[in-house]
């Protein structure tokens, strides 16, 4: 909106408006995106003459919404400007009748009568409910609340009194329920509004023992959280005098929502396991942790680094023996370094993909989860190799190593099974539980060939890992133990020639 037009709207100067229109006849015809129009400003500040002139020149501006989704009538109703509301409601030209404006909703699904009830504007309620649009009284909010519910919620006794005494549909309003099954009497009782409650109880059409969705009457609502500080005694006596009873006294069956098994009331709600995995944040944290561990392990291998040359340039038997020992040690550390590097590169790949691609689809997250499995298994293998090399003389560690190898074998088989099921579902060789199909034609044949090749490759990798777990890491080091550990299972040394 033009700044000069805004200044004229704020001041309500009709003469300035005409001067601006003489300079630019299309000033009011220019669209305003995500901004107020002059009628919004005039309705907010209560400039009835200015609003009447704008409505005369551009009547369709009365339907436009501001940034908050409010029409000019919403703003006039909330601020209590009855003169502006009368101008807007009297606008019936250009196909914009006043009763249509009464039913327009804002972003909170409120009509102008709801805005007036929330602020307790009885003069606006009279213009809307009695004059221009009586049917707007029956309009409900997104939570099923009527204007009477909102008047009680705002603690406006004048608005409640006006709606009940003046509106023709007063009996319907008194017994109307919101989405939770609460009537206006339930709300008045919950908020300890003694005057409002006594006034509504004086009406013969009110249902004193109305039950909400929780199976509570207004008296139950009072007894649910007693507090003598707010006059609960007077409230209870008043509703008892009007015939109010509890749900137990009425012998009403509990609602379906309350009929729960006894054990389930104390059980924690079940949460899907998938909510805690295969998310970008979880994968990033785990990948960063694995990358840190494997990087530190690569720089500090078990036993540290050794220098083969003694620096003297001379060869002696002791240095030769030490060099042979170092060569043997480097050979034994090769599996550790290999799996440690695999875990490091796999975790770094996950971090790089999460940073560059920012995946949101389940397929991409599933692919990253498989890489995460590879990183975890590789880190476990590197740990296994390091432990065996450091504590190779301890029989207890070897027993624990054998048990850990069995666990890793089971994990490898389980991952292979999950991977196989994942691939078989993609080509229609496994029961497809979701809505989808594997495709048809030559592309399906190519997919199935690729799946078979991938399964063979995965099966070979699983067998290799299992062999490495049980044989290379566990069995071969076991054969290097001396006879003191297992004298009955190791052969006697051959006699010297």
Automatic annotation (TrEMBL):
Keywords: ANK repeat, Membrane, Repeat, Transmembrane, Transmembrane helix
ANK repeat coordinates: 68-89, 143-165, 180-213
InterPro entries on file: Ankyrin_rpt, Ankyrin_rpt-contain_sf, PGG_dom
Location, primary (coarse class): membrane
All residue ranges annotated as the PGG domain in the record: 275-387
Membrane topology designation: Multi-pass membrane protein
A single cellular component GO annotation: plasma membrane
Membrane-spanning parts: 280-299, 336-355, 367-391, 403-424, 445-476
PROSITE patterns: ANK_REP_REGION, ANK_REPEAT
Highest taxon listed in the record's lineage: Eukaryota
Protein name in the entry: Ankyrin repeat-containing protein-like
Keyword Signal included in the entry's annotation: no
Keyword Disulfide bond part of the UniProt annotation: no
Cellular location(s): Membrane
């Amino acid at each position: 909106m033009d700044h000069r037009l805004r200044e004229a709207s704020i001041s309500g100067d009709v003469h300035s408006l005409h001067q601006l229109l003489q300079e630019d006849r299309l000033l009011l015809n220019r669209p305003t995106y995500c901004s107020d129009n002059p009628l919004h400003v005039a309705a907010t500040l209560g400039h009835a003459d200015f609003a009447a002139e704008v409505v005369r020149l551009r009547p369709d501006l009365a339907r436009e919404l501001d940034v908050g989704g409010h029409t000019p009538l919403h703003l006039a109703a909330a601020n209590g400007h009855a003169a502006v509301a009368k101008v807007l409601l009297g606008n019936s030209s250009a196909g914009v009748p006043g009763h249509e404006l009464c039913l327009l909703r804002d972003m909170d699904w409120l009509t102008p009568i709801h805005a007036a009830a929330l602020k307790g504007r009885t003069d606006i309620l009279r213009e809307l409910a009695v004059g221009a649009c009586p049917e707007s009284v029956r309009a409900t909010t997104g939570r099923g609340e009527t204007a009477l519910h909102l008047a009680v919620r705002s603690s406006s006794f004048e608005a409640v009194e006006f709606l009940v005494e003046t509106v023709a549909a007063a009996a319907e309003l008194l017994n109307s329920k919101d989405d939770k099954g609460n009537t206006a009497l339930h709300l008045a009782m919950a908020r300890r509004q003694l005057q409002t409650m006594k006034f509504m109880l004086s009406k013969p059409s009110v249902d004193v023992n109305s039950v909400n969705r929780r199976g509570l009457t207004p008296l139950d609502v009072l007894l649910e959280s007693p507090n003598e500080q707010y006059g609960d005694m007077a409230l209870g006596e008043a509703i008892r005098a009007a015939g109010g009873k509890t749900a137990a006294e009425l012998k009403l069956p509990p609602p379906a929502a309350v009929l729960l098994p006894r054990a389930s009331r104390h059980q924690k709600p079940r949460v899907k396991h998938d909510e805690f995995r295969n998310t970008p944040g979880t994968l990033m944290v785990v990948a960063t942790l694995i990358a840190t561990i494997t990087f530190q392990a690569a720089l500090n291998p078990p036993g540290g680094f050794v220098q083969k040359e003694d620096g003297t340039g001379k060869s002696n038997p002791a240095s030769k023996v030490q060099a042979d020992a170092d060569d043997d040690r480097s050979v034994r550390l090769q599996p550790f370094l290999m799996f440690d590097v695999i875990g490091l590169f796999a975790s770094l790949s996950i971090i790089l993909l999460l940073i560059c691609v920012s995946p949101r689809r389940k397929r991409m997250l599933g692919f990253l989860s498989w890489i995460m499995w590879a990183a975890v298994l590789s880190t476990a293998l590197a740990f296994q190799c390091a432990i065996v090399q450091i504590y190779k003389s301890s029989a207890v560690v070897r027993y624990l190593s054998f048990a850990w190898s069995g666990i890793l074998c089971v994990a490898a088989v389980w991952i292979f099974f999950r991977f196989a099921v994942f691939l078989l579902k993609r080509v229609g060789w496994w029961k497809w539980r979701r809505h989808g199909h594997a495709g048809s034609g030559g592309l399906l044949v190519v997919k199935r060939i690729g799946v078979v090749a991938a399964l063979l490759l995965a099966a070979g990798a699983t067998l290799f890992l299992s062999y490495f777990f049980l044989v290379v890491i566990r069995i071969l080091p076991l054969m290097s133990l001396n006879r003191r550990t297992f004298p009955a299972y190791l052969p006697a040394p051959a006699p010297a020639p």
